[in-house]
Amino acid sequence: MHEASQIGRYGSNGITQFASNSDIEKYEDNLEAEEEALEEQERERYLNSLEGYLATEFEDARMWKEGESDIQDTIIDSLNRRNGKYSSEKLGKIKQAGSSDVFIGVTGIKCRAFESWVHDIYTNAKRKRTWSLKPTPIVDLPKKDQTRIASTVMEKYEQALQSGVEMTEAQAYDMASQMRTEIITAEYKEAHKKADRMSRIIHDQMIEGDWIKAFDAAIMDLSSSKACIIKGPIFRKRRIKVGFEKKGGVTKPKYEDEIIPTFERVSPLDLFPGRSCENVNDGFIGERMVLSRHSLLANKDEDGYIKHNIENVLINGITGTNMYTDSYRTERDEAENKDTDYPTAMKSTVEAIEYWCFVPGSMLAEYGITEDAEGNEIDPLMDYDINAITVGGTIVFVKLNDHPEQKRPYSVYGYCKEIGSFWYKSIPELIKSEQDITNAAARAMVNNLGIASGPQVIIPDTNRIPTGQDISSMYPWKIWQGTNMGNTTAPLVDFFQPDSRSGEMLGVINQSMRIADLTLEMPAYSYGSDKVAGAGRTSSGLAMLMGNSNKGLKRVLLGLDRYIFQNIVEKLYDWNMMNNEDDDIKGDMMFMSDGIISLIMKEELSQRRLSLLQVTNNEFDQKILGLDGRAKILADAMES
């Protein structure tokens, strides 16, 4: 090797200077070190920025849910079980073993039965809503009313003295108490009217914001997944019908663009809580979402949106990291029977991540956030709860959480709570073992029935069969040809009939299904099965059994009232108290549930009415009630 490289450079005197190989290697090493240092500085800058902070938090939550725990696997497996399908891995093993792939849909039956219960109570067409707002008890009178009562009593006292009548202290106290009662009664009556108006407004807002659609979709998650998640109220600009107007003598609906509260179901597969979260307001929450390009452009000038970032993402495309490696896309598409990985030249949507988390105040100044919701200057050392959206790692929206109590717009509930966890256990999880036993017994039964469906053929000596004869096929009146060169007395063909074990397998299946009933506290007769014995053979006995069996379901429905309906109604109540200009709807109110309570009362009243009809089924009581009276009681019992 030459001592000097042929690559040179000109010095200040115009003479070419040559460097040795060692100098070049040293120069290249220094250049590489400088580039690595610049990359490290850029990486440090990114990680210390808000975008880097959010990316790090989301990746940690994603790794916990998809890698370190079995949460994502369990959600997909539960969905497959509800749909009566094996996972691809399990189905492959079954096919490899040459077994039947029959699947007994016990899980799907239980899920649909539970959903029917929920819809019967909450979406019954006979009731407008299953909740209401009631005024809180009025204990203390306002200062002005206290002053008015005191001045009125003193005036009456002086009038009594002038007329020569002495008013005792007890009489004055009674007069003040009566006035206080009258004022409280009048104010409470007015408070009831305001609460009723507020209830109607909130109910209308829920209907206009697609509440029914979101609730119906979430109920399937409640039965089949680790949680049902409803997002809302989210205030968006929507075109809604506001009334009717006449145009050219013809009445037509009138539409206007208004900002209204909206609701949507969030798939449990798309929500990523922090690894230590126990509820949505506890720590980091990330949501994988799909945004339309039209929506981003329509909102680019709204408060919180970053116009130049939105335009850059939509014009130049997503050039950065997506911050979401969808390692479950194939499994999810199979479970949901769809294809989201199809190639296309231009998509009308973009994948995004929405964040709700606490971040240091020092990261917010870059985005123009210098004051908190109360107008105080942002403290660089204090953490603030923010809402942000990124597309391809670029922040397109960021804003402080402006709820007075720092609540986030998610309502989460599930079938059976895992103590200390964010997630719940679903029906497919709770009866996983029973479903597996049922399927194993069903596959064995089908395999056995196939074997036992006809005789198996034994050919003791295949040398006696002529060449070319097909011994693998059987059909009626088949002639078996053969030779007997050795004059043997053994038959050419013998037949063996395998035993059927379907009875034992059916016993296993039935017992597993009964255990599933006990596990879920949801016996088959509670949703229409005719396989009832003992007390269930009589109407009163069956009613008693159903009342006892429904206790577990009532527990779930009570939680649905508390964690879904109450949470959402209270958020809408807070928003209307702060933003609605109508003072006739405002006041101190509390949420009252009529859902599960109405169910309990309906069952109790039905039983009592039927019992009353039995007790009064005698000539003396019939004279008192009469036919019309008994008919009314019977009609009420049947209706409830």
Q: What's the number of helices?
A: 18
Radius of gyration: 37 Å
Structural class: alpha+beta
| Number of E-type strands | 16
What can you tell me about this protein's structure?
The protein is of the alpha+beta class and 640 residues long. Helices cover 48% and strands 18% of the residues. It contains 18 helices and 16 strands. The protein has helices at 21-47, 50-68, 71-82, 88-96, 106-122, 143-162, 169-208, 211-224, 293-298, 307-316, 329-336, 427-430, 432-452, 502-520, 539-549, 551-579, 595-615, 619-639, and strands at 4-10, 16-20, 131-135, 228-247, 250-266, 271-273, 285-292, 349-360, 383-391, 394-400, 410-413, 416-417, 424-425, 456-458, 494-496, 589-593. The strands form 6 sheets. The protein has a 5-stranded antiparallel sheet with strand order 6-7-8-9-10. Strand 1 (4-10) and strand 2 form a beta hairpin. It is flat.
Keyword list:
five-stranded antiparallel beta sheet, disordered N terminus, 640 residues, alpha+beta, three-stranded antiparallel beta sheet, single chain
List the helices and strands and how they pair.
Layout: E1 4-10, E2 16-20, H1 21-47, H2 50-68, H3 71-82, H4 88-96, H5 106-122, E3 131-135, H6 143-162, H7 169-208, H8 211-224, E4 228-247, E5 250-266, E6 271-273, E7 285-292, H9 293-298, H10 307-316, H11 329-336, E8 349-360, E9 383-391, E10 394-400, E11 410-413, E12 416-417, E13 424-425, H12 427-430, H13 432-452, E14 456-458, E15 494-496, H14 502-520, H15 539-549, H16 551-579, E16 589-593, H17 595-615, H18 619-639
Antiparallel strand pairs: 1-2, 3-16, 4-5, 4-11, 6-7, 7-8, 8-9, 9-10, 12-13, 14-15
Helix pairs in contact: 3-11, 5-8, 6-7, 13-14, 16-17, 17-18
